[in-house]
């Protein structure tokens, strides 16, 4: 279903993010976890895309499997890096024929193993250009929906490191929306004040599309460190660090603190009329299921704001 219709119907969206597994055993485990998450009836699920197209087939295969074998509505991620117009067109045509409704439209980061970083940029340098291209793809009349694909783009409550000037950053975000993005999904954050301030600054900048909050429950110390490196931010607030320190090296304790923190974040966001909650599941199911249960949410349909 087109993301605009999902948002209109669901009131508050709940969505889950997965990454495609590279080996058979991990893929089987992922699918077992997906089966456990399915009864929560998420508004949509998204599947990441490896930098430079490194998971092109894996992403496509997982998306099609989700579409054909489950009740879930998959939204593939797609990035600019290393792709030209012909490649993007071929990917979009395949998704249109598979009945996919929405694309998470991103720039991506330059793969570390690329011989020359300049090779990363072919026809698309910024996500806004890819948004425009996907929007214009509707004119080809390949997609069953006359609006073409619904489009989600990324936003950064803690700021994106490449644009320290936060006013310019919002101009760049607005450019993506002006090119046709239907909603914004944010990078993970741990202090809701960052999200509320970001949402208010978007409003002041004239960005009127729904902003879905990215939530990543901490489930281990190692994961927490990796997250800080990958996520271009992840400012851990002192009260969270204090609670994790109390848990010390008790792995179960760390997990409980992380899930409790994320649950409180979600409760507060729901109380503040968040447009949606997007869970970075890390391909697991326990944390998301526990958060749903503690929030008193049975499934994602009909939770009106
Ligand atoms: C919800 C979400 C999902 C993600 N999924 C993936 C994934 O599947 N695969 C992956 O590889 N990465 C993914 N990422 C990471 C993302 O690709 C990186 O954060 C990347 O660095 C920026 O992508 P973007 O789409 O935000 O880029 P852009 O919106 O293009 O912005 C990137 C930077 O360039 C600046 N900028 C934008 N336009 C201009 C312009 N015209 N002139 C000058 N500067 C400009 C922006 O201010 C920003 O600092 C995801 C991020 C989020 C939040």
Could you characterize what this model shows?
By secondary structure, the protein is an alpha/beta fold. It has one domain (3-295): Alpha-Beta Barrel (TIM Barrel). Helix content is 45%, strand content 14%. It is built from eleven helices and eight strands. The chain has an eight-stranded parallel barrel, surrounded by five helices. The longest helix is centred in the C-terminal third of the chain and has 21 residues, at 251-271. The protein is globular. The protein starts with a helix and ends in a 10-residue tail after the last helix. The model has no long low-confidence stretch (mean pLDDT 94). Residues 48-49, 51, 77, 79, 104, 106-109, 126-128, 154, 160, 162-163, 169, 172, 176, 185, 187, 214, 232 line the site of flavin-adenine dinucleotide. Flavin-adenine dinucleotide (FAD) is lined by residues 48-49, 51, 77, 79, 104, 106-109, 126-128, 154, 160, 162-163, 169, 172, 176, 185, 187, 214, 232.
Structural class: alpha/beta
Radius of gyration: 19 Å
Which ligands occur here?
flavin-adenine dinucleotide
Distance from N terminus to C terminus (CA atoms, Å) equals: 20 Å
Q: What characterizes the major β-sheet?
A: 8 strands, parallel, barrel
- Secondary structure: helix percent: 40-55%
Tally of strands: 8
CATH class descriptor: Alpha Beta
Q: What assembly state would you assign to the polypeptide chains in this entry?
A: single chain
| Strand content range | 5-15%
* Shape call: globular
The domain tally reads: 1
CATH fold field value: TIM Barrel
């Amino acid at each position: 279903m087109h993301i605009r219709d999902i948002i209109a119907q669901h009131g508050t969206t709940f969505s889950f993010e997965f990454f495609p597994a590279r080996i058979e055993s991990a893929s089987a485990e992922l699918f077992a976890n997906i089966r456990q998450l399915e009864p929560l009836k998420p508004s949509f699920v998204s599947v990441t895309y490896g930098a430079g197209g490194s998971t092109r087939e894996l992403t496509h295969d997982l998306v099609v499997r989700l579409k054909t074998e489950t009740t879930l509505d998959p939204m593939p991620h797609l990035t600019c890096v290393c792709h030209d117009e012909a490649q993007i067109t071929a990917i979009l045509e395949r998704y249109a024929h598979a009945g996919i409704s929405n694309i998470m439209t991103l720039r991506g980061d330059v793969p570390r193993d690329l011989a020359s970083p300049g090779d990363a940029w072919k026809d698309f340098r910024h996500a806004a250009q890819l948004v425009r291209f996907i929007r214009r793809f509707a004119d080809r009349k390949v997609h069953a929906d006359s609006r073409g694909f619904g489009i989600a783009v990324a936003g950064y409550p803690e700021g994106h490191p490449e644009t320290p000037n936060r006013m310019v950053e919002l101009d760049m975000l607005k450019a993506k929306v002006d090119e046709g993005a239907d909603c914004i999904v944010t990078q993970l954050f741990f202090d809701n004040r960052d999200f509320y301030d970001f949402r208010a600054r978007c409003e002041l900048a004239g960005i009127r599309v729904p902003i879905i909050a990215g939530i990543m429950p901490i489930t281990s110390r190692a994961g927490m460190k990796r997250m800080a490196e990958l996520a271009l931010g992840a400012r851990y607030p002192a009260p969270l660090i204090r609670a994790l320190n109390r848990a010390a090296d008790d792995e179960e304790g760390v997990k409980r603190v992380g899930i409790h923190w994320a649950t409180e974040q979600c409760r507060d966001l729901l109380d503040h009329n968040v447009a949606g909650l997007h869970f970075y599941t890390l391909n697991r199911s326990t944390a998301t299921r526990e958060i749903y249960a503690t929030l008193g949410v049975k499934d994602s349909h009909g939770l009106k704001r």
